[in-house]
Design brief:
heterodimer, A: 254 residues, alpha/beta, 6-stranded mixed β-sheet, 23% strand, globular, B: 340 residues, mainly alpha, two-stranded antiparallel sheet, two-stranded antiparallel ribbon, 16 helices, 4 strands
């Protein structure tokens, strides 16, 4: 049984081929890093998996169910949750409000229970709020709990993005450049948090531009260039391969 | 943890309770028909404005709420006048039909939402008006339908007579306002309100967190449609006549203005305050008998609100802010930080 599997996935925008015949398997429990220079199709990869874009060709399977061509909310319900490259938040909400809105999938009882404020709803809500607080603690956002989300610093907004994805209890978490715009220390802080999340049994697919970050966190990496997969393997080994260095630095440099 | 009386919560609740009680006692204090009629009509508008605000809370801007009033009004008027149903089943039927139309229109248009939704609802206003005008055999066209108030109800010891004065109708309207307020308040407090906020504030993010946007937009629009239809029935039967031009585009705009004046921060308080103030203002302006003065000054009100209270903050939200920031000079969330 495959966990998440992409079979010959292609995505084109007009004549531009953003992804071409990508075959990819994500194993449960791993942290898979996807690297590549700008415009190599990394974000398109996440967009296609999460259903934001449809794959032009090819199929995506998750736990042996075909998810390509489904609506984003169906894919999210299947347990694939993503974050965004920029800080995408619920405008004008506080941290706790954002988290509560995001905990949508955590409620199993119908809306009627909540409407009539029944015991079942109260119990369930208490449980979810408890989990929200736990997660806020895990990601060091406790002091900001009641502050407006858009007033947080860039780094904490990125963390909040991850927290908002985590509250859905994803089976697999797709992180789109979680450390953009951070200095090395901040990035290492986020890396540490991602490792903690992974320890809780969440499979992580992380897209990263910054090699140093990836070497620290990923258990396996895939290198993309011009929409095709050019290398795959253990981070240290892959990063020393000739074609990977060429893709990053250009042929002339080598 | 020390126990304390939460004045911040108790005092506004007391004010609301006293306000409701005072309004409920108006017929006892005064039997002035003009006052009652004013309260009844602004009550009807407040139900409609609550519906508009609910749709807005789910992120959609409906310019066709008056069309649902017309659908409700015409349904019950046709049923009572042309098919001689009694008022009560017709009243319920009106809510049902109006909700059904909202559901069907919503299922088609809310797939895209946004500006397309606003345009289609605007068109809906015109479509309803044209149908009412042209379908003469049923709606009597521009001559309009002459409706009547409900028949007297004999309770044995007391007869509720809608023809003698407006007091029974006042309580009927008050009941609808209370019911709508209760339902909408619960929606706002419940998980549904939270989901509406998610869908409205960032649809891409909401969708990637598993919320099916269209489902929640349609729910909001349909619930609003049902209550708007019921309010439309009360409107048509209170005024005892319903013509195609009574509920059109201008009325839809009026609903929008009432909503922004009251503020969209609250689902119940804002719409009620906004519609009362603007209905009274509007009926005063109508008495001046200057053509177009109402449109002109309502426009001015909108400009003022947008200048001084942007981002959907209306009078009620302003009062809420004043209450927390000025009257209770407390450091916010002191309690929560202290607990850790």
């Amino acid at each position: 049984m495959s966990f998440l599997e992409l079979k010959k996935v292609t995505r084109t925008f007009g004549k531009l081929v953003a992804l071409e015949d990508i075959d990819l398997k994500v194993e449960p429990g791993e942290i898979l890093g996807v690297v590549g220079p700008n415009g190599s199709g990394k974000t398109t990869l996440i967009n296609v998996i999460s259903g934001y874009f449809r794959a032009t060709r090819g199929e995506i399977y998750f736990m042996d169910r075909k998810i390509s061509g489904q609506r984003p909310d169906r894919i999210a319900q299947a347990g694939i949750i993503r974050t965004f490259q920029s800080n995408v938040l619920y405008e004008g909400t506080t941290v706790i409000e954002s988290m509560l809105i995001s905990s949508y999938q955590q409620y199993k009882t119908s809306h009627w229970h909540s409407f009539f404020n029944t015991r079942t709803w109260k119990d369930e809500n208490e449980e979810v709020v408890g989990r929200v607080i736990e997660l806020i603690k895990l990601l060091d956002l406790l002091n900001d709990t009641f502050l407006p989300a858009d007033g947080l610093s860039h780094g904490y907004q990125r963390l909040l993005g991850i927290a908002m994805a985590m509250i859905s209890k994803p089976r697999i978490l797709l992180l789109d450049e979680p450390t953009t715009g951070m200095n090395h220390e901040e990035a290492m802080f986020v890396v540490d948090k991602i490792k903690k999340i992974n320890e809780q049994g969440v499979t992580v697919l992380i897209i990263e531009h910054n090699m140093k970050v990836l070497l620290n966190v990923a258990t396996r990496v895939v290198v993309l260039n011009f929409g095709t997969k050019i290398a795959e393997g253990i981070p240290d080994e892959v990063m020393n391969r000739q074609e990977v260095i060429e893709a990053y630095l250009g042929t002339e440099m080598v | 943890m020390m126990t304390y009386i939460d004045y911040k919560n108790v005092v506004p609740k007391t004010i609301i309770a006293l306000g409701v009680l005072l309004i409920a006692l108006v017929p006892v204090l005064t039997a002035n028909e003009a006052t009652l009629s004013m309260l009844i009509l602004s009550g009807i508008w407040s139900v409609v404005v609550m519906g508009f605000t609910l749709v807005l809370r789910a992120g959609q801007f409906s310019l066709g709420q008056a069309a649902f009033m017309a659908i409700g009004g015409y349904t019950s008027a046709i049923l009572t006048v042309q098919m001689s149903w009694s008022f009560w089943p017709a009243f319920l039927m009106a809510g049902l039909v109006s909700g059904l139309v909202a559901l069907l229109v919503g299922m088609v248009v809310l797939r895209v939402g946004g500006i397309y939704f606003s345009i289609i609802t605007l068109a809906l206003c015109e479509v309803v008006r044209i149908i009412a005008q042209q379908w003469e055999s049923v709606t009597r066209g521009t001559r309009g339908l002459i409706t009547s108030q409900p028949n007297p109800i004999n309770l044995g010891f007391y007869e509720i007579n809608f023809f003698i004065n407006s007091v029974p109708y006042f309580y009927l309207t008050l009941g609808l306002v209370a019911l709508t307020g209760l339902v909408f308040w619960r929606i706002g407090e419940s998980r549904l309100g939270r989901t509406f906020a998610g869908v409205a504030l960032n649809q891409v993010l909401a969708e990637h967190q598993g919320m099916y946007l269209m489902r929640y937009r349609v729910i909001a629009f349909t619930v609003a449609g049902v209550f708007t239809g019921l309010a439309g029935t009360l409107y048509a039967h209170f005024l005892t006549v319903l013509t195609p031009t009574m509920l059109g585009l201008w009325q839809s705009i009026q609903i929008l203005i009432m909503s922004i004046v009251g503020g969209i921060g609250s689902l119940v308080g804002g719409p009620i305050v906004g519609s009362f103030i603007l209905y009274i203002f509007g009926s005063y302006l109508t008495r001046l008998e200057i053509y177009g003065i109402q449109q002109l000054l309502f426009g001015a009100v909108v400009v003022l609100v947008l200048l001084f209270l942007p981002k959907g903050t209306g009078l009620v939200d302003l009062w809420g802010k004043f209450w927390t920031k000025v009257i209770w000079r407390e450091k916010e969330f002191e309690m929560d930080e202290g607990e850790e």
